[in-house]
Design brief:
Blueprint: H1 3-24, E1 33-39, H2 57-65, E2 67-69, E3 72-73, H3 79-88, H4 99-104, H5 114-120, E4 124-129, E5 154-156, H6 165-169, E6 193-194, H7 204-219, E7 224-230, E8 237-238, H8 241-244, H9 267-271, H10 277-281, H11 296-326, E9 333-339, E10 344-345, E11 351-352, H12 358-361, E12 365-368, E13 377-379, E14 383-384, H13 388-395, H14 410-414, E15 424-430, E16 433-439, E17 443-450, E18 455-462, H15 478-489
Parallel strand pairs: 1-7, 1-9, 2-13, 3-14, 4-5, 4-7, 6-8
Antiparallel strand pairs: 2-12, 9-12, 10-11, 15-16, 16-17, 17-18
Length: 496
């Protein structure tokens, strides 16, 4: 072979090798997209989590194509802190963790949010609906100021006849809504549910789905991080009547355990002064002067409404996933479905979120990656919302910031029988009480302290008790309490 010919062949081989490496390591033509779906107040009340009576075929189908995390826990069972933790990759109780950056008026010289990381690496980043705490990811009715600054190329919520994002979030038919807030002046005379004879766009999540489909069509030729946040099943439990009709209300099961756990010194303390405030104070039952009392009949309606709202949002998720597949984007897109926290449906006598029980801190997490080697499996290892940021960065071969509180779940995605951590931790500010909790495979320990640092009470629950932990076993297992307290102190959370 002539020297010049040999050099040419070597040159072509080198170019081919560089090209192959570029594709393998995430060059622009091979970048993996992300479709992130957030569902507000969604507890693991799905068929893929063993609740066979639920009608959520699209989420169940996604589970059959991906991996279901059965022990995913949020850091705080409230919308704002949970979403702040998700987007910052750091455990926080802040409802608006990005406020200081917005007010500073200049972009920091570091990565501070999940979508910012993707934007900085050439992805088109789009937020629809509720991803951060504020619907549309915007702080103003004109939808100009992003709640998470320097992170989204586009952030908005279709408002329709409700005129602004918060109006759409609480949408009733005919443009009716309620104001956001906890002042009595924001309470409404509307009931906590509605079952109108309308199409899917008769409520705002139908508009969110339409916008997501539209965005997929516009983004199909560029690397994208598309986040779609659906409002239901957050109160009010409003959904087209056809979704209510999927259920026979007499066959919807009641809460597994409707009484507070035994051997608890103070129910108020265990609740963190929880009063099931959302359905009791923000809405009005027609013709009922005792609005504060949730009667058995109200319980049946509320659970029926929650189920209908889940089925409604499942229908909207199906439209988005169908479009992803029609465009053949499913072959190069990671799909992640996340519930921002759970919700008590009468469990322990509570209706709502914002407790430190499993019922509120445990939520669905389903991940589907292109060409999964083991689709349709479940993982029992403990994971946390704070692990999502490093996981998506890892899966998309982006540099993982070194100041995050979580770790990548990729080892579990590759081997569902593996684990990455021994426990999760959570917190709750309950007015003048601070609650901190740790959850291992078997136990949940809760520590309640006053603002001055005094320990008010400690609760220990054994997760082997069925159907739910129903006794405080703190007195009978002092060694377990000590071990878990030591583990909790190592996390340097407030007051521990």
């Amino acid at each position: 072979m002539r020297p010049k010919t040999s050099m040419l062949i070597c040159g072509f081989l080198l170019i081919a090798l560089v090209s192959a490496c570029s594709k393998r390591d995430g060059g622009n033509d091979q970048q993996t997209n992300v479709l992130f779906i957030a569902v507000d107040d969604l507890r693991p009340e799905l068929g893929c989590y063993g609740k066979e009576y639920m009608h959520a075929p699209n989420m169940d189908k996604l589970a059959s194509e991906g991996i279901v995390f059965r022990n995913h826990f949020v850091h705080c069972a409230a919308c704002g802190p949970s979403r702040s933790t998700l987007l910052s990759g750091k455990r926080t109780l802040s409802w608006d963790v990005f406020r200081d950056i917005r007010e500073a008026g200049s972009k920091p010289d570091r990565i501070f949010s999940l979508p910012q990381l993707f934007k900085e690496h050439g992805y088109k980043t789009v937020c629809i609906g509720k991803i951060s705490h504020l619907p549309g990811g915007v702080t103003d009715a004109l939808q100009q100021i992003h709640e998470v600054p320097y992170s989204w190329d586009t952030a908005y919520a279709p408002a329709g006849e409700w005129k602004d994002p918060w109006g759409a979030f609480f949408s009733y038919t005919g443009g009716k809504t309620r104001l956001y807030g906890y002042d009595r002046g924001n309470d409404t005379d509307l009931p906590p549910f509605e079952a109108a004879e309308v199409t899917d766009t008769g409520y705002a999540d139908g508009l969110n789905a339409e916008e997501a489909v539209k965005q997929l069509r516009e983004l199909k030729d560029v690397p994208f991080f598309l986040a779609v946040g659906f409002y239901k099943p957050h109160l009010p439990f409003n959904a087209p009547k056809k979704y209510w009709d999927l259920y026979d209300p007499d066959k919807i099961p009641e809460a597994d355990h409707r009484m507070m756990p035994e051997k608890v010194r103070s129910n108020i303390l265990l609740h963190g002064n929880h009063t099931s405030y959302e359905p009791r104070t923000h809405y009005r039952w027609a013709g009922d002067s005792s609005n504060y009392i949730i009667t058995p009949e109200k319980e049946r309606i509320l659970k029926h409404g929650y189920c209908a709202a889940v089925s409604y949002v499942d229908g909207q998720i199906g439209k988005v996933l169908d479009e992803l597949k029609r465009l053949e984007l499913d072959k190069k897109t990671i799909v992640m479905l996340w519930g921002d926290h759970g919700w008590h449906l009468g469990d322990y006598g509570i209706w709502g979120k914002y407790t430190n029980f499993d019922v509120a801190l445990r939520s669905p997490l389903i991940i589907k990656t292109p060409h999964m080697s083991k689709p349709g499996v479940s993982a029992n290892g403990i994971v946390e919302t704070v692990d999502i940021f490093p996981t998506l960065a890892d899966l998309c071969k982006l540099p993982v910031p070194d100041n995050l509180d979580g770790i990548s779940m990729k080892p579990i995605i590759n081997d569902p029988n593996s684990s990455i951590k021994a426990y999760s931790v959570g917190e709750r500010n309950a007015w003048d009480v601070h609650g901190t909790t740790i959850r291992t495979e078997r136990y949940r320990l809760m520590v309640w302290k006053a603002n001055n640092g005094d320990t008010l009470d400690v609760h220990l629950f054994d997760n082997t008790e069925e159907p739910l932990p129903y006794r405080n076993v703190v007195e009978s297992r002092p060694e377990t309490v000590k071990r878990l307290l030591d583990m909790l102190r190592s996390e340097n959370l407030k007051g521990i």
